[in-house]
Description:
By secondary structure, the protein is α/β, with parallel strands linked by helices.
Amino acid sequence: MKQFKLESSIEIIEWLNKQLQSAKLISFEVLSPDIGNYYSGSTVELEGSSYIYRSLKSWVDLANVLQCKMHLPQKVSNSTICLTFEKLSQADSFHNTDDSNEKYGTQSLFATIDKSGEFAFACYYQKALHEIGLSKRKRIINLGINRGDEFVLIQELLSSEAFNAKEFVGIDYSPSAIKSAKKRFKTYSNINLYTHDINALDALKLGRFDLLITIATLQSVSSNFKKLFMDLVQKLLNKEDSAIIIGFPNSRWIDGELIYGAKVPHYNSSELSTIIKDIYFCKKYLQQHKYRVRVIGKEYLFLIATQIGIKA
Length: 312
């Protein structure tokens, strides 16, 4: 088994990339991250040998960058462990399926994903809900609701009385997803769900809301992202004391793993310019309309907006 001691990060990356060209599983021996508290890259002398220390997070990040799953480390000796990287199957991803309205339906690969199960999503979404003053938001709309995971997380944060006092509206283009969500929330009279195109919301006559939530939806449903976003702000939100949470996916779901980095057509790897451009546009537009805007997150970037002069 290959052992790494003083090899540089580039040497390790090049070796792993070469092995992954022909192997699905790769195992190698490294210094245990539990031998002490050091910064990754530090040289450590141990039992007559020199090693470059790397944290467990550093190895997990490397597996993510190489689009691999890292297995549970196994102890080799008192000072070293065995790491195994498993190459992910690119075919096992909803990103590769067609763009029909059932790409996100109950029979799709997307339906096997629960974003709230990932701390990288749940932690920042919870923070976003706190910052917009969730307790005082009375009418909440979610565009691209699918099966309703974001409403469930709100439910977990509120008492039954507080949750039932709010009015929720969810929109999705997938009939099977909305059918599933209706079944999930069938006992709640304060939750209304619609199968509809979010580019044509005027037809539903929904009125105005004081909180708009949309996660990984706006860019995927409209070729004119900017116009859609401006229309939503102007037509859907209260003129006073409204808030917005937009989740931009800076990641991909592949073979059971959440892989960091947005991907666009015609690029084989992560390419962030589109997501940066769209976030910048939204932030600038909202600031012009007297919103205070923050952007937080990692695998999902959350744009959080509240109106200036209004206490959350």
